[in-house]
Amino acid sequence: MAAALNLGGCLLLFSLTGCAQNQNSTQAFSPPPGGEQVTVTVKVPQDLAADTLRVMYRSQKCQVKRSGADWTSYEEDGRHAIEVVPQRQGNSDLYVAKLDRSGGGACQWNLSNVTFGVHYENTAQFGEGVTYGYGGGVIVIFDNNLPQRRSMDEVVDVSGDVVVREDYYPWVIETFIGGHEKTLVIMGRQNVFSYRSSNARSVVFEPILHSGLVVRTIGVKSDGAGTSENIYPDGTREFSGYDPSLRRLKIISESMNSR
Question: Of 61, 133, 179, 209, whose CB neighbour count within 10 A is largest?
Fold first, then answer.
């Protein structure tokens, strides 16, 4: 059973057993009052919703034993995971969460990383049977540990605060092999952007959603039967085994904005 506490402008989810959504440790988590915080701000476009933040703390004092592939054992920093719901600021499109740098307690937990982003809650506007897939994610790392979720793309090192402004397009993928499915993706340069900053006090994510520019991909009906088809917002059709072109989507966007 879980309860919620409104603390420092954000909603902290925690278990009534006393450990805040703790996945890997039962050690006490007690951020000291008045301690340093990192403010995470998400500017949420219309049609999208802010993700719950998944926050990881690590401890050098409370290490845990792990087993390697060769059955040898080793120790690594303890982990303490919590989830934080960002709070809307008045009637604005800004959602804010404040993360304590120190988790306190006997283990002296320290903020390690946060994973957050945006997603579609309502997919009905894209047709019947469309389900949300992925995209619109951000990972910020505050130490030298690997995050629990990882991107296939490189981690960008930043000095100081982190600001992420990226263009996104709704992408509907229809597949037939193995079952008929329609998946909605928030398409950008990357599905998840990863940054590392040891001294960031502010993290801002401003996704720019081109909601009216929907690109669709129609998959092949059977193995070896041609290639998938990309249909762009201007009606252009392209038979290709590749993802839609972001460059072409940007050109279409600029052309429509200039009219």
Answer: 209
